[in-house]
Amino acid sequence: MNFRALLATSLLLIAPVAAFSAETKPAEKSAASARHPLRGVITSVMADQSAFMVKHEEIPGVMRAMTMMFKVDEATFKAFKAGDAITGLMSRQGRNWVLENVKPAAAKPAK
User: Fold this and answer.
1) Along the 111 residues of the chain, how does pLDDT read in single tens digits?
2) φ, ψ (nearest 5 deg) of residue 102
3) pTM above threshold 0.70
4) For residues 101 and 111, what is the distance between their CA atoms, to the nearest angstrom?
5) CATH architecture under which domain 36-104 falls
6) In a designed cystine with 35, which of 1, 4, 6, 91 is the match (CB 3.0 to 4.6 A)?
7) Which sequence spans correspond to the domains of the chain?
């Protein structure tokens, strides 16, 4: 096989892989940084990790209702305590789940 034929064959094999990588990286990044509205109750405060354990409602299309740990910033950590009903925006940042824009939850209307 001559050099041109070898080069052409190599490019045909590499091009789809490069295109696939270029297409999936932005999607992966946006999925990882997506923020979702959350409503729940703080079940415990984890001072050593600057985090809350939150029992949250279902987040339709994202996850079922459960209790999980969320990292929070220092101001949020100081403003809330176990037992507080909250709303906020959750996102995945690296290996951590993070809760931002945390506010006291308004009372749910009676059904």
Assistant:
1) 566 665 555 555 555 544 444 444 444 444 456 999 999 999 999 999 999 999 999 999 999 999 999 999 999 999 999 999 999 999 999 999 999 999 999 876 566
2) -75, 135
3) no
4) 27
5) Beta Barrel (2.40)
6) 91
7) 1-33, 36-104
